[in-house]
Amino acid sequence: xxxxxxSDIIEFAKNESIILQKVSKYWNQQNKLDRPDGVLIxxxxxxxxxxKLESTFTKTGLLVFPLNLIENLEAxxxxxxxxxxxxxVQGTVYMFTLFSKAKEVVYExxxxxxxx
Length: 116
Hints:
Elements: H1 6-10, E1 18-26, E2 37-43, E3 46-53, E4 62-66, E5 70-78, E6 82-89, E7 92-98, H2 102-113
Antiparallel strand pairs: 1-2, 1-7, 2-3, 3-4, 5-6, 6-7
């Protein structure tokens, strides 16, 4: 999926606001070849991942998670180095690495999840 701006994705949600944006990598647990780089966006209703760099192996273009479906959310490290967030949605594990401040992302998700 190709988008010009982040607002293109959320334009239909009149009361939705972008809370936080982070450059991230999706660590696909089902297909280890599909691990695209992109932007992780926290809104007051959803967590959104948009792939920014496509390659031959990447299949994921857009992931959208309503905050109320996110379970077992935690900040952790991948390979003891890279900060990451990890969570489950409907039994499937999702993980995203970040350059920094994974705990900030967890905090914002938990804060807005409580209001949904």
